[in-house]
Amino acid sequence: MTEKAKNLPKKESESTDVVEKTRSARIYKPNVDIVERDGDIVLTADMPGVDEKSVDINLEKNILSIYGKVDLSTPDDVRLVYSEYGIGDYQRSFTLSGEIDKDKIKATLKNGVLKLILPKAEPLKAKKITVEAGE
Fold first, then answer.
1. Among positive and negative, which fits the CA dihedral 16, 20, 23, 24?
2. What is the pLDDT of residue 5?
3. Could you say which of 24, 69, 71, 108 is the most buried, measured as most Cβ atoms within 10 Å of its Cβ?
4. Residue 118: beta bridge partners?
């Protein structure tokens, strides 16, 4: 199988209407790239300001949820005068098909870029069922 890439127009980071109840931070939907390879699917998400200790990835009922918490603190000796960069947390969910081996998913995070490796499950093999004479 060859790698497939769709050229879609890039979009600006957008805020979602979802608000976390325990923090007053904005929540953004991170931009992602999804690439299918022979044995797996690679999902790459841009989450600036998030480190490996502040990201939470859950899989429940075929829903893969990503949540990244950004530290909103600013140094005490500065006062923000103007900002064009929005700061907030990141949240995104994906529905996984039965094609993914859910027990072998791996995640790495480096410099605010989350990379998820979603290995494809082995195809189910046909099984011959023998019939025995009943009593």
1. positive
2. 52
3. 69
4. 41
Give the amino acid at 13: S
Report if residue 79 sits inside a domain: no
pLDDT at position 1, please?
44
> What's the token pair of residue 90?
């990141």
**What CATH number should be reported for the domain holding residue 31?**
2.60.40.790
pLDDT of residue 6: 55
> What is the structure's pLDDT at 41?
96
Residue 115's contacts (CB-CB under 8 Å, 6 or more residues apart) are 42, 43, 44, 107, 108, 109
List Cα–Cα distances, 24 to 6, 89, 121, in angstroms: 36, 10, 40
- Please report whether residue 51 resides in a domain: yes
**Residue 134 counted as domain residue:** no
Range of the domain at 62: 25-72+85-119
Residue 50 located in a structural domain: yes
The whole-number mean pLDDT for each consecutive block of 10 residues of the chain, a chain of 135 residues, reads 50 44 76 94 94 94 94 79 84 93 94 95 84 85
